[in-house]
Amino acid sequence: MRNVLAVAGRELRSYFHSYIGYQLMRGYAVVCGFFFFSFTATYVVQEFRMAAMGGMGAPPMNLNEYIIQPLLEGVLTVALLLFIPPITMRLFPEEKKTGTIELLLTSPLTALQIILGKFLGAVGFYAVLVVLTFLYISVLFLYGNPNAKPLLAEALGLFLYGGALLALGMWISTLTKDQIIAASVTAEVFLLLYVLDWVTAYSSSTAGRVLSYLALTTHFHNFAKGVIDLGDLAYYLSVIVLGIFLTARSIEALKGRP
Amino acid sequence: MIEVEHLTKRYGPTVAVSDVSFEVQKGEVLGFLGPNGAGKTTTMRVITGYLPPSQGKVRVAGFDVVEEPLEAKRRTGYLPENPPVYFDMTVGEYLAFVARIKRVPRREIKKRIAEVSEKVAITDVQQREIGKLSRGYRQRVGLAQALIHNPDVLVLDEPTAGLDPKQIIETRQLIKGLAGQHTVVLSTHILPEVSKTCQRVVVINQGKVVAVGAPDELTRWLQGYETVLVTVEGPAAEVMDKLQRVPGLHWVEPRETSDGAVTFEIHSEKGLDVRSEVARAVVESQWKLLELKTSGLSLEDIFLKLTTKDVAEEPSVSGEQLNIS
Q1: Which residues of chain B are in CATH 3.40.50.300 domains?
Q2: Do B99 and B163 meet the contact criterion of CB atoms below 8 Å apart?
Q3: B321 half-sphere exposure, CB direction, 13 A CA radius
Q4: Which residues contact A164 (CB under 8 A, 6 or more apart)?
Q5: Do B51 and A255 touch (CB under 8 A)?
């Protein structure tokens, strides 16, 4: 465990010693902030209208439903498809390029310890982005009273969704020495996984349903509503395990080459 | 301390190292000498557990590098040709990180960093970012990294490559100082380096061990002779008799026969080209001279190549020309 943490710690600090980490944080803050502002503004306008019309017997508007859920499900799931590849692109290509992979692989570490360390480091940096998101959301508590309980499920969902992307991105990063290639292939794969469930719009066959089940975003829906579904939980955890397993295979194969 | 038995390493169809065996005793400094591409780095990578062997066994401090990799790696310090440093870390941070992944007990980390830094003279750059250090300093940081867990075995791949003369001398001194407490394997393509730092040398070429011995033994052996190969069509015994009478020849031996032609290997005095004499002897006796050539590369030629700095540009030695071992 100590070894895993050592690798994770080094990985995490390297994000803050490079421009890329700050660039990502800045970009994410801007995107997230823009949509947060836009959803909030729409909400406020709507609420004024409702109030002006005297409610008309409609149920009161809900902050969770009008701001937090669309922000997470509608915007961030897509935004992360673009923000995760730059997080994972350097995990292995950089080590291969500078030769530090030799240090790791000749140290008394198992491949799994190296992989878990790197994964945790990336998750640690991703956690900063999640915290940024919830900083915005916490503003709602200053001026309104959103329901706090669904936020836990939403945070967990955001973590798992990101974790699944990070695990897959990490695997793709083992396949090349070039960070740019790693990032672009990762984004490409993410995009395909994202649109997988679109096929259900045209086909309701078994294959269509399977594809839709495999799509990354289908399982986020419940989390975004504030519901923790064991099936969804299992789905994301399996993707994470799969990503780690594929990375381990790839590292083993790497050893056979010069 | 290190036992390499019949090690073979293939990358797909190419054989990088073929049936290499040698042993290194505790406290010994072993030099691994060979031209670029000879298989030095591959062998070292197998010893350090970076690459698995295709065939054969490697044991470090009694632990098989394939079966008990963690135990073997714990006892090995490795400095690859390019020091494996993270450019964005300071020297102190980097050494602390390496100490942790090499399982130096938490309490001893500070002490170990201070000790190795002192040893390789990097105490004054602890707070500097590695990316901003010169090549010489990076090399020393790499060496400190290999020493940090006080390993039994040190594997150094071209430890003096890219250093300036003063740094080369310092590094050699340092390595000499490590002998005794550590078992050291170092690779180089520079002959004088071996005689200055190593007690024993393994010469490797084309993935095969060509010679093993103490540096001065090898040198003595090298001062031997010139080799000429001559193919003659004629009565073997008579040809041999005639050849033996050519002045300056030490030794003649038939090597192979085909269709009445015999190839002889001739050793002559060093620095003496006997080809014209041999040719005359054969032609005078009315035999047919089919071929006459100096035998491609002797061990000495390899050494010459090794001692020349710019071996990188020369085409590598081809296998069949190499008839020594």
Answers
A1: 2-220
A2: no
A3: 15
A4: A216, A236, A239, A240, A243
A5: yes
CA dihedral for A150, A156, A158, A160, sign (positive or negative):
negative
In chain A, the number of structural domains is 1
Whether the CB of A97 is below 8 Å from some CB of chain B: the reply is: no
Domain limits at A121? 2-255
pLDDT at B153: 92
**In chain A, what residues touch B17 (CB-CB under 8 Å)?**
none
Pairwise CA distance, residues B151 & B78, whole Å: 9
Name the residue in chain A with its Cα closest to that of B12. Answer: A257
Residue A91 pLDDT: 92
Phi-psi region of B104 (alpha: psi -120 to 50; beta: other; left: phi over 0): beta
Architecture of domain B223-294: 2-Layer Sandwich (3.30)
β strands within A123-222, DSSP E: none
Q: How many CB atoms lie within 10 A of CB B166?
A: 9
What's the pLDDT score for residue B325? Answer: 35
B184, HSE (Cβ side, Cα atoms, 13 Å): 28
CB atoms within 10 A of CB A46: 12
Most confidently predicted of B33-47, B96-110, B157-171? B96-110
Interface of A with B in 108-137 (CB under 8 A): 108-110
**Residues of B with CB below 8 A from A107's CB?**
73, 98, 101-102
Least CB-CB distance to B52: which of A17, A107, A255? A255
Alpha-carbon gap: A132 to the closest alpha carbon of chain B (Å): 25
| DSSP secondary structure letters along B120-153 | TT-GGGTTSBGGGS-HHHHHHHHHHHHHTT--SE
DSSP B43-62: HHHHHTTSS--SEEEEEETT
**CB proximity B48 to A under 8 Å:** yes
- Mind listing the pLDDT tens digit of every residue in chain A (258 residues)? 888 999 999 999 999 888 889 999 999 999 999 999 999 998 888 888 888 877 666 667 778 888 888 888 888 889 999 999 999 999 999 998 888 999 999 999 989 999 999 999 999 999 999 999 999 988 888 887 878 888 888 999 999 999 999 999 999 999 998 999 999 999 999 998 888 777 666 666 777 777 777 888 888 888 888 888 899 999 999 999 999 999 999 988 876 555
- The pLDDT, as a whole number, for residue B308 is 54
- B88 CA: distance to closest CA in chain A (Å): 6
With CB atoms and an 8 Å threshold, state whether A103 touches B74: no
Q: Does domain B2-220 have CATH number 3.40.50.300?
A: yes
Q: What is the total residue count of chain B?
A: 325
The verdict on a CB contact (< 8 Å) between A258 and B11 is: yes
CB within 8 Å: A99 and B48: no
- What pLDDT score was predicted for residue B219? 64
